[in-house]
User: Fold this.
Amino acid sequence: MNTLILAAELAYWQQTSIRAVVGLAAVLLPAGTLVYLFLFKMMSFMQSRLGPMEAGPYGSMQLLAEVGKFLQKEDIIPAKADRVVFKAAPYVVLVSTFLLVLVIPGGPDLMFIDVDTGIFLALAVSSISVIGILMAGWASASKYSLLGALRATGQLIAYELPLVLAVMGVVIQAGTLNMQGIVMAQAQGEIFGFGGIGSPFIITQFLGFAIFLVAVQAELIQPPFDMPVAESELVTGYLTEYSGMRFLMFFIGEFATAGIFSALAATLFLGGWYVPGLDPTDTLFNVIGPMVLMGKVILVAFLIFWFRFTFPRFREDQLQTLAWKVLIPLSLINIVATGVLKVVF
Amino acid sequence: MTATTDARKLAYIAGQAADARVNVELETEGMTLNIGPQHPATHGTLRIIVRLDGERVIAAEPVMGYMHRGYEKLTEVRTYPQITTLVNRIDWLGSFANEVPFILAAERLMEVEAPPRAQWIRTALFELSRIANVVLFLGDMGVQLGAITPVFFAFRDREFVLNQIEAVTGGRFHPNFDRIGGLKDDLPKGWIDETRGVLDRIRTFCDEMEDLVAGNEIFQARTRGIGVIPADVGLSYGLSGANIRASGVDWDLRRDSEMGLVHRELDWKVWTHPDGDSFARYWVRLQEVREACTIVGQCLDGIPSGPVMAKVPRIIKVPAGEAYVETENPLGIMGYYIVSKGELVPYRVKIRSASFNNVSITPWLLKGVYVPDVISILASLYFILGDIDR
Assistant:
């Protein structure tokens, strides 16, 4: 299972290009789905309006229209901006997004890389986006952007910790950092001797799941943790000066990361590509696995976006208080409890 | 004299030096941030210059006048019936309420009184425009704090109120319906029953807002204890309306003065809140919308029959004299001081609008708060740019 096995023997360059295409699709398709399904439609229904209805049936082509609009827009760089850094910032954010998708398995043999420290790698590369945001805010030469970037930095650093600590419980229970191993542990696990549905860690690690979701919400800079972009005070913060294609890249980064974090949550807590009742080593999962995973991603993303459309935002100090005084102690308790129970049972 | 001054100077310098020694590692430069004139939180073109230390505001100064339209001067070359068109546009969310005090002042000068039916309908429309205005605040406060959904509910339900206003006046936004001596027209058929349905909708909306916004823990954490205005400070800055009632001052012109409307014949309650913070201002306005529904409901029950227009001359010349009438408008106290020389046009009209005073407290209020609270406090003070700059 250490390498991608395809039915046909492929040359290295062929494998690589397939991986590149699939990787792009794995980032962009969920992102597009989330934007259409939740940002366009669900938000509209929650706000008693219809949302986009004109472009394509039921507004389904609206995404393409939006992308076309952004591509046509002038790429404005402020006169006093640090041009190189300003231009590079969106790429840095996207790099973190694309690196994240690598560790998520879509089936028993379906994955980009199979590293033993999978979840560790994912959490490490997710922090790269902070650098991109800080670059964007600093290089924009705008006070609003600077305030936004500094808020973002403080927030992302604060919420890395509960994110990592929430995952620790899962890792202890599964006994591995390998993403595939975590899925297998859930698929083959038993709840008090009953193995009918496997053992999705959301049942035993519910506290961890809740903390993970809250921390993800903060990592994604979505309400109620959206002070860095806070359009009513900072006029979208570090994004203020961006327009056209570069803004689109931040936008893709935001929603693709939302999709990938949902996939992480689905893999860690909901059993990933596995559905109960089937043999997890069945090669059938190489086909239906990605679809199952996508379904679970939509479930988790629904929660994330539901919070996004409902809550007002915290103040910066309240957010830090929540992270350091509530979430981190709670996740530490969770780790201790998990460790003790793991030894006892 | 000089000795004490020198001693003080020396003490001051010593203090500064001590501060400098402490701060030498944490020396930061202040930052001046212009919030506005084009900023989503200022509802138009208010500009607030804030001096920041990190995220904390050291000093704040509102700069007004970006929307000054010279209404006071314009009134001097308009006849009285024409002026209602202008004053419609002062507080554009509750337009009808702007006409009322002006017409009442002119009526007082002319010594005519609107027939009872006109007064009752006036009161109903006055309160409907209050609902149309404050409902938007109830949703908008959520947006300023980052919750995007409430404002859509507000716009949705406000539309029904505007429909009712339009059905009577023909104007959705700017009714221009009040006349010296009464009203332009009578109510259309079936309006009273329809309005009852709309009032139920607004009551449901208030319950929704109580759940979705006022009852939200994050909203409370963001607004409780933030932007506290003590009653005496508020009064000294000339605050009025819900802003001062939220500081515990039980003062409502609808109850406390003879405005010329029929509020005093109705059974309703003036709400106050002891805290004086942003949450109190939101809560008081929420109750006021409910109370306005009660008032309109009672008006609908009690509208007497009769004409809606008193006998007034076709060409209105207001006798020489001066009159000042103020009413409790959606944003606070609004008053018109009319000086007439017995001509077709007034000699001078001074407009006292609520938002100008409500915003003038910001330098005092914003000192020492965080940037996000600047926005929430401004939103809770609830100003309309047209009402500030006129």
